[in-house]
Design goal:
The chain is an all-alpha fold and 186 residues long. It has one domain. The chain is 84% helix and 0% strand. It is built from six helices and no strands. Helix 1 packs antiparallel against helix 3 and helix 5 packs antiparallel against helix 6. The longest helix is centred in the last third of the chain and has 46 residues. The radius of gyration is 20 Å and the shape is elongated. It starts with a helix and ends with a helix.
Length: 186
């Protein structure tokens, strides 16, 4: 299937903008939870033992805080497909901008477009494990699984950000080339 380059840029812009908007809302909700309890859901990504999770859940002890934390973890599921899509398009645009012809660089960039998708799946697993521990109790085994999923997600997000920066650079180069060709045509 072929997609027009203008459509690709449009989808990238929309998915990136929506992901940024949902991320901002999620960050605000998590900031509020952390201000109220001292622990936010983003802090859970750095935990690797049951005792750490139990301390966070204790801070959320009043039911309304646990509900807020559960909502934040659930709301994060809206962000996952958005950032995966934005980073996927970023990779495609980076490949188009810097490796338009078949070759090893293009193959590598096209393979990297799947890393954010894997990261979003790891993020979903991480949140599911955290929600499970919130509802049924934390264990070291579940905490270790959540920590592993978090590490996978973090690496994938770094790759995604690199692809995003590559797409921004490709867009800049494309506009500069169009501007120069317009000037030279005069």
């Amino acid at each position: 299937m072929r997609i027009a380059k203008a459509t690709l840029w449009s989808r990238w812009a929309w998915s990136s903008g929506l992901a940024a908007g949902v991320f901002a809302i999620l960050a605000l909700l998590d900031y509020r939870l952390k201000a109220l309890t001292g622990v936010g859901t983003a802090d859970l990504a750095f935990f690797s033992s049951a005792i750490q999770f139990q301390a966070a859940f204790h801070a959320w002890g009043p039911e309304r805080y646990a509900v807020r934390a559960g909502f934040d973890l659930g709301f994060d599921y809206l962000l996952m497909p958005l950032y995966a899509t934005a980073f996927f398009y970023s990779g495609v645009l980076t490949a188009e901008g810097f490796a338009p012809r078949p070759g090893s660089l293009r193959r590598m960039l096209m393979a990297l477009v799947w890393v954010p998708v894997i990261g979003a799946l790891a993020d979903a697993a991480e949140n599911a494990l955290q929600l499970t521990m919130l509802l049924t109790g934390a264990t070291d085994a579940l905490a270790q699984l959540a920590a592993s999923a978090s590490r996978i997600k973090n690496v994938a997000l770094l790759v995604g950000l690199a692809l995003f920066l590559g797409a921004v650079m490709a867009r800049f180069n494309e506009r500069r080339a169009a501007k120069q060709s317009g000037i030279s045509a005069l």
